Amino acid sequence: MKEFQLIEHYFHRQNQQRRDVKLGIGDDCALVQVPENKSLAISCDTLVEGVHFFADMPARELGYKSLAVNLSDLAAMGAEPAWMTLALTLPEVNQTWLQGFSEGLFEAADYYGVSLIGGDTTRGPLSINITIHGLVPNDTALKRSGAKVGDWIYVTGTLGDSALGLNILAGKVQVDADNKDYLIGRHYRPTPRVLAGQSLRSLASSAIDLSDGLMSDLGHILKASEVGAIIDVGSIPQSEAMTSSVSQDDALSYGLTGGEDYELLFTVPESQRGALDTALLHAGVKFSKIGQISAGRELKLLLDGQAFIPNFSGFEHF
User: Fold this and answer.
1) How far is the C-alpha of 158 from the C-alpha of 287, rounded, in Å?
2) CATH code for 152-306?
């Protein structure tokens, strides 16, 4: 199957394009209509075999995750997903793999209202590069730089599940069957908090998605906002699958440094805490308060009121 046949067969879905796509796949460029009152949010991620995923990762799960991690970036800015381009590097044309990958990709795209509007294919080591485009009302985008002293620090969902799932896949940890399926599922299929991000636009003072782990990503907010933070390690939300599978120390390690959860970390002023409860209730997202922004530049960790000094390193994509 040649390049244009491949694109036509697996990735050309013109009948499912958004109305704001004026010209999609099939020309030198795509043409889209950007509303006058909105800004364009753009992000790009690359997934490389052996760096970001194992060679035996199911193709459908890889297709889904490839888009989900990009959607999480839009969620962190409070943007509405709109369009994507895909650059796919393949060692060979494996039609079974392509069928599964495209099905997973479009499963996520259809659910979140994203149109594939262009891209490229080439031969080489397997890698997936997606550029995602979203829309956000002017002057409402969430940023990393708005946290203020006294703001409360929150996270959505539970933390550490994806990193534990990765270690299960790598054969480093063994857990019971039910927990294994759940934890690997959280690694393969993160949930981008798109609706939650949009709900936070008028409430949160800063936000970021958790791709590299709580400590690393919180550090980005603290640096951009020029503030410090106090984190209650015991309040970090964790799943039952996590706490029933590993020791408390290991659970704390996963919660603080485990990457690829793609939950949202955000800060909220005291004056908006009541509105936050209502907003995220409508978004159907569980969230937890884990600390507070402080003066200075230091990140302090507390456990049961005492200083907590972690003895583990940060997350890496193997």
Assistant:
1) 8
2) 3.90.650.10
